[in-house]
Amino acid sequence: MQATKFQVKLYTRVGDIELEKLIPVFHEWIRTKKISDELLIDVADYAHVPQGPGVVLIGHQSDYYLDVADNRPGLLYSRKRGFEGDFQAGIDDAFRRALNACQLLEGESSLGLQFATNEVLFRVQDRLVAPNADATYDAYKPALEQAASAFFGGAPSLERIGTEREPFAVRITTGASGTVADALARH
Amino acid sequence: MTSWKEQLGDRIPDQLAGEVDLFEGQIELKMQGKLDDKIFAETRLRRGVYGQRYDNGLRDDGTGQKTLTFPCGDLTKGPDTVWDAPGMMRIKVPFGKLTVEQLEVLSELAEENSDSILHVTTRQDIQLHYIHIEEAPDMMRRLAAFGITTREACGNSVRNVTACEYAGVCTTQAFDVTPYADAITKYLLGHPDVQDFGRKFKIAFSGCEDNPCGLVTFHDLGAVAQVRNGKRGFRVVVGGGLGAVPVQAKVLAEFCPEEELFPLTQAVARVFARLGEKQSRARARIKFLVQKVGIDEFKKLVADERETLRPDERWTAFLDDLHSTDEKPVREAGAIPSDAPAGFQAWAKHNLKPQAQDGYYSAIVKLPLGDFTATQGRALAQIARELTGDSIRCTVEQNLTIRWLSGADAVTFYDRLVALNMAAPGAGTITDMTSCPGTDTCKLGISASRGLTGELRKRLTVIEDELHPAVQALRMKASGCFNSCGQHHAADIGFTGVSRQVGGRKVPHFNIVLGGQWTENAKSYGLVVAAVPSKNIPKAVELITGHYLTNREGEESFQAFMARVGKKEFRKVLAPIQKAPAYEDDPSYYSDWGNPREYTIGDIGVGECAGEIVPFVEFGLQEAEQQLHDAQDALEAGLSATAAAGAFNAMVTAAKALVRHLEVQVTDDADDVVANFKTHLHDTELFHDPFAKGKFATYLLKMHGDHSYEDADDEIAHRTLDEAQLFLEAAHACYQRLTEAAAAAAAAE
Ligand code: HEM
Ligand code: SF4
To answer: Does the CB of A185 have a partner CB in chain B at under 8 Å?
Structure first.
């Protein structure tokens, strides 16, 4: 059985986060169907929770967080439903959707945000199939390396992080310095 | 491993495993179209799988109602409930108690199946939102492996049994109510006598009479611990409840010996199942039955029923070991270091309570809006594992209390909370507000209670240290609608969401409810003072607290002040901010807190037809409000009969305004108004509330029929006023619907 609940987080590079400003932006995305191949449903506001999920654009297939966990604001893409396609395609798709959302956010002039491409956090929210263990890391490493170098170029370095109680997580240092648009154009 | 079922195997108790399998089977059947919508909905609710806002597949995006096209097509999980739409899972946490491992598994589920947030409810449960129904069975298995069942968390069943979060460690308790709450939870779960209720049944325990933690007076059945002549027992109250018409529970037994508690409860359950209302949901809670037959007759019915019960050894078996639920501290008792840092001291002032056991403390982790993250949950569990053991309790104030903290570890504990951003001071003060889910996720929400609470919290936290101690001590609670899930009746300052029509548009408002008493187990409820636009509520809080501070005498409490000056005075104080500015002048009033979408359903144009008739109806409704306010004043002055008659008149005035709005000729005579109201608004269902149906209309019709408002005593007057308040709300809502319909018709032409 394959896990599909992938999460990809890209950190902000420029701009202070004022979470409240995300609320009208996400509502507008729902109204204009900004992510056209996904059903966007509602906005959940957790700005009151310190270092929490921030503001969440709730969708059917996936959620998009402007997440402030660890005091490191970033865009967190979170797939909730199954994915049609092979393992590598599933990982590539998660990277692409995260990058795409970053690009859309960069385009929102009210926010003034830019995202960095030198570091990516990858997680799987599925302890049954993908516990935070060496075996999972071995299974995911090649596909993550492939996705990272396809989007960001070069040879990424990977590190499994967190404890067994936490979801499986990998910190990917890409070495890239380009923009989100560059990454999307590359792959 | 390919499934949780396989992975967890024997760790799931057999009975729970069977139940989850059954539920999974029903999900399968439903997906194959082989199960009826209503039956599936009830099954799902009984297992704590609730609906959530927009689950009918429709959502207003601020410019009109749009369809959410879920991939499931026509598949539903209940009447008008789309299969794929996100739902809520309410996880029953008996008396709020969580072990370290339970908190860990809940945190895992929050991450994997929800949005990484765990929410503590006002009845000590945990809720997860945005859940897909197909993921529910595995979630239940993972919870079951750690002894948690979601069963009977919702639906017409015995809801979570609540109890004071200090049970067992409290300095004022008669004795520890935990083993009783635990045993009765197990006894009643799935018991045949509690399956046939017309409505939910809530039980609460309190360890003492005076402190509010148990809040027994607004429960269907409440038990307050007492010791008489060395014998343990309970003062048992019955028929309390919040909701649209709040009722204080009545005493069923002044002293019920401990061994009689279960049979007494069972007898109450059987009487309720047999005689409680089944058809009309609105009148199905036990409070209505107690009111209908009277407490004396009810006592007799219960006593007779008690005689028929076949003895059950479980009634008393648990009494043999009342220490089975005791918590075992993991660290030696100790004193708080005398050189504790200032930050700690400030936190400890409200967040640390000495226990009855020397050298141990209970620490309150104050949560913003009852929310915490999975990461925080996991880290807190680890802290508890190291310092306190399985001693976590969810509280009715939507916080977490961690008991059995050694004084010697208190500073370490605090430092670790600081690192988790969980060391907010001021537990139980004005910054520690309670809120129901409101329009964020509740299908019935009218106003954004969470949005409001978040806003007030933010503003007050900044000035927390400068607030006068008397203001700091006030409690505020918000509910998104009259259902009162936020328990706002039991607060010094409470808020209930209502909507009002201003110049052809809707404006979110909150009714301000003042003077509810939180202490002595929520001894009395507040009354509505005024409806204020949502966006003016922060100002209202400023005015209310300011007025209190400037005008109180000596150390007078808010309660005493209210009792002295009355609500009339506060109405004057709030008058300048009761009116929303015109849309053209300030559109911000036309959306709610934390939600930029315009607060209207569809595009309600200021159509020509509406333009003509709006002023008249609005005038009539306004007049009715005024009459109701006068009636409230009369009540405060002790003039019960005048108050009740005034409230009835207010209803007649509102009814008349609506009847005229339909261009029906009507005189000022009450009989004429009520007859026409019945024909044109009630019988046509125009006045029907989408959820409460004909409930509010019945208040007027019934009162007109039985003249109960005449010669009313204090209790009847209170009820009449409450009913009139709801009738007026319904009248406003009805008027809104009529305006919308007219505007839509005009647009179609
Ligand atoms: C989808 C709609 C609803 C949601 C999301 C909701 C949510 C809640 C929550 C979170 C609580 C506290 C938790 C608990 O029971 O463990 C609560 C309690 C309560 N609910 Fe609701 N509720 C809903 C519908 C209703 C309705 C329709 C009524 C009444 C007709 C109602 C009446 C109450 C009352 C009176 C309480 C709390 C006070 C008490 O303990 O008696 N709720 N509700
Ligand atoms: S009070 Fe109303 S809005 Fe709040 S949860 Fe209850 S039903 Fe929903």
So the answer is: no
B701 and B632 housed in the same domain: yes
Give CA–CA dist B711/B125, Å, rounded: 43
Residue B608 falls inside a structural domain: no
CA separation for the pair A52, B422 (Å, rounded)? 12
How many Cβ atoms from other residues are within 10 Å of residue B55's Cβ? 26
Average pLDDT over residues B134-154: 89
CATH no. for residue B45? Answer: 3.30.70
Confidence label for B746 from pLDDT (cuts 50, 70 and 90): confident
Q: Which atom from ligand 1 is nearest to the alpha carbon of B691?
A: 27
For residue A72, the enclosing domain spans 6-186
Beta bridge partners of A62: A79
What is the pLDDT confidence band of residue B276, given thresholds at 50, 70 and 90? confident
Torsion sign, CA atoms B674, B680, B685, B688: negative
- Please tell me which of the candidates A5, A31, A129 has its beta carbon nearest to residue B63: A31
Q: pLDDT, tens digit, for every residue of B625-670?
A: 878 888 888 888 888 999 999 999 999 999 999 998 887 888 888 9
- For residues B306 and B404, membership in a common domain is answered with no
Token pair for B462: 């900044």
Do B254 and B175 belong to one domain?
Answer: yes
Domain of residue B184: give its range.
162-319
Which structure tokens are listed for A177?
A: 């310095």
User: Is the CB of residue B488 below 6 angstroms from any atom belonging to ligand 1?
Assistant: no
**Nearest-CA residue of chain A relative to B53?**
A42
The amino acid at B738: L
Q: In sequence order, what are the residues at sequence separation of 6 or more whose Cβ sits closer than 8 angstroms to the Cβ of residue B444?
A: B480, B481, B483, B691
- Which tokens sit at B312? 């059950």
The helix (run of H) or strand (run of E) holding residue B72 is none
Considering the domain architecture, whether residues B393 and B512 belong to the same structural domain is answered as no
CATH of the domain at B366: 3.90.480.10
- Is B427 a member of any domain? no
Taking contacts as CB-CB distances below 8 angstroms, the residues of chain A near B108 are: 127
User: B447 C-alpha vs ligand 2 centroid, how far in Å?
Assistant: 9
Whether residue A27 and residue B421 make contact (CB cut-off 8 A), yes or no, is no
Residues 6+ apart with CB under 8 A from B576: none
Q: Which of B324, B392, B95, B322 is nearest to B214 (CA)?
A: B95
Beta strand pairing call for B117-120 and B126-131: antiparallel
Q: Of all atoms in ligand 1, which is nearest to the CA of residue B204?
A: 40
Claim to verify: residue B639 and residue B740 sit in the same structural domain: yes
Residues B415 and B439 in one domain: no
How far apart CA B702 and CA B382 sit, in angstroms, is 58
Separation between Cα atoms, residue A163 and residue A181, nearest integer Å: 34
Instruction: Kindly state the DSSP code that residue A156 receives in the 8-state scheme.
Output: -
State the Cα torsion B135-B138-B140-B145 to the nearest 10°. -160
Q: How far apart are CA B582 and CA B580, in angstroms?
A: 7
Q: Supply φ then ψ for residue B452, to 5 degrees.
A: -65, -45
Q: Pick the residue of B53, B113, B115, B146 with the most A CBs within 10 A to test the interface with A by mutation.
A: B115
Burial of A38 (0-12, 13-18, 19+ CB in 10 A): middle
Same domain, B351 and B388: yes
How many structural domains is chain B composed of? 5
Judge residue B708's burial from the number of C-beta atoms within 10 Å of its C-beta, 0-12 exposed, 13-18 middle, 19 or more buried. middle
Residue B58's φ and ψ, nearest 5 degrees, are: -125, 140
Structural domain contains residue B185: yes
- Among the partner-chain residues A27, A125, A129, the one whose CB lies closest to the CB of B111 is A125
Q: Which residues pair with B435 in a beta bridge?
A: B478
Q: Domain for residue A1, yes or no? A: no
Backbone phi and psi for residue B241, each to the nearest 5 degrees, phi listed first: 175, 155
Tell me how far the alpha carbon of residue A80 lies from the centroid of ligand 1, in angstroms: 28
Q: Using one digit for the tens of pLDDT, what is the confidence trace for A118-153?
A: 999 999 999 999 999 999 999 999 999 999 999 999
